Amino acid sequence: MKRAFDIVVSALLLLATAPILLVAAIAVRRSSPGPVIFRQVRIGQHGRPFNIFKFRTMRPATEPGREITVGQDNRITPIGAVLRKWKIDELPQLVNVLRGDMSLVGPRPDVPSYVARYPDELRRRVLSVRPGITDPASIKYRNENDLLAGQPDPERYYLDVIMPDKLALGAAYATRPTLTGDIRIILATLRTVVTDR
């Protein structure tokens, strides 16, 4: 049921947001040199790597740098900042959902270097389900970049404080995922994007 829901809803969303996708693609292309779509290896269900798709929001020469983005990161282009604010940069992940790499709702997929730091039991539980475009941790840490900007060592704070909490939330979700729960999370995500609360 969850997979069927993912396929139907992601296909409908791709059709509904096609004009936004087109405008965003043109804006990214004109804003700075480089590809429109940013691809990065993430770890999916059962530890399988896949390429996640996003609209490129950073300058290509610097994007492969550190793994986290902090505050008003100078790597982010002006158009990229707008796409990030409204989460438009995440829309290409609907293609990941159709391909079966991801689900609409599930623990956010991490890069291999961070997954390697997961405690064994949490890694097993979090990777037992498809990763998602959104999840409870995405809602709780919707302003993560600003939170990290206030830390003297942002990456250390992420690894020591934020990542363990995200893992706990992801493991709790993976233990009992339900379609009604997914719908609530999607609606809550839309509310936070629109109201920033």
UniProtKB/TrEMBL annotation:
GO terms for biological process: polysaccharide biosynthetic process. Belongs to the bacterial sugar transferase family. The lineage of its organism: Bacteria, Pseudomonadati, Pseudomonadota, Alphaproteobacteria, Sphingomonadales. InterPro entries: Bact_transf. Pfam families: Bac_transf. It comes from the Bacteria. One of its GO terms (molecular function) is phosphotransferase activity, for other substituted phosphate groups. It comes from Sphingomonas turrisvirgatae. This is Bacterial sugar transferase domain-containing protein. Residues 2-194 form the Bacterial sugar transferase domain.
